[in-house]
Amino acid sequence: MGCSLEVYRARIGNWAGRAGCGELRASFPRRDGYLGLTATVSVLLVSLISVLLVIGGLELNPGPTCFVCRRALKSGAECSVCGKWYHNSCERIRDVDIIGDEWSCNRCTRKNVKVLSERVRAFEDENIQLRQENLRLARAVEESRAKLAKTPKPAMSTARKKTEAATAARVETATVTAAREKTETVTAAREETATVTAAREETATVTAAREETATVTAAREETATVTAAREETATVTAAREETAEVTAARESAPFVTRDATTATDPADRQYLVLGDSIVRHIGKHENLTVKCFPGIRTRQLSNVIDNLEKSQPNVIVLHVGTNDIKGRHDLDTKMGEMYDLATTVKKKFPKSHILLSGIIARADVSSNKIRALNDRLLWVARVQKMLFVDPNKWLTYRDLGRDGLHLNRTGAHKLGSLFQQCCEVLRRTPLN
After folding, report:
1. Which InterPro entries match (predicted)?
2. How far is 33 from 35, CA to CA, in rounded Å?
């Protein structure tokens, strides 16, 4: 029963089809002289207006509108009783509700049920009256028979007897026929009553199903809300725990005298950041030197570190692995490469603290995979006795650029501030 807007327009037509120029031209009488010229000019003006309406896009029939939401229809159903149109979603129409090409809306269905109920009541009342009439007639017949039995019968001729017998047979036949017709009427009324009852039960079933569907939908929405709240709570809890760890590290760090590794003068602080293109724009912080190698992988960074000068910065920050996350090897192989890199850095810079940064979440890699790799990097940091920081607890997807991979200005500033704070904590912590 679903009817698209194109089918409706094909049935109804458009403005130009309903008011063509030929019909307008035929409506003017043909006259000679000045009046004929006026009619011709009127026809031309009407034709010009029709062309302008067609160019302006106003010639199309806007089509039917939904009786519930009063919006235009692209697809929907038309009630076969009242002729009104409805969206499938507004009237909650299903395919099983449409029998053949016939479908009626809820309003018409309720009206039909009410009319049928009234007809059933009328049939029942009429049946009662007919029964009472039959009883009255049966009593009258019995009384007539009793009177006839008491009355002496005069002698009748054979022809008269046959006539009376025929008449009695005809009357009895007519009575039986009328009783049969009344019985058939009552049977039809009962069948119609059964149909109405079945319709009522089906309507109640559909209503219960709709209510149950609404309940399930509300439960799903509430579950989604609770899940989002739990995830947000877990994120906040993790951020608080890591903040507490950093604060505890700051408070427990001993105050030592000024030397090469615990300098208090800002000029003696040297923080070196080695990484891929993610750390390109984070260097606008005090004593933070950034060496960016776009596209570099973990193994390649080991070779680069071997060629660096033997300066001894206070803290070395490693941020690498962004270009390895989509490689062919599994996560355990990448963990082994990071372990080898940490060993190389510790041999090259034995007097420097090392800060290992986790992989930042990105749009083209699932968060579960990034979380699994960061868990392996945390294990490497614990075994190598380094500090590990997960930037995802400070950064969000809003801090990513348009490519969904690199950081924007806000994200780069947040990451640089995070590295600066962690370096300050490590600088005051003695080497193991």
Report:
1. SGNH_hydro, SGNH_hydro_sf, Znf_FYVE_PHD, Znf_PHD, Znf_PHD-finger, Znf_RING/FYVE/PHD
2. 6
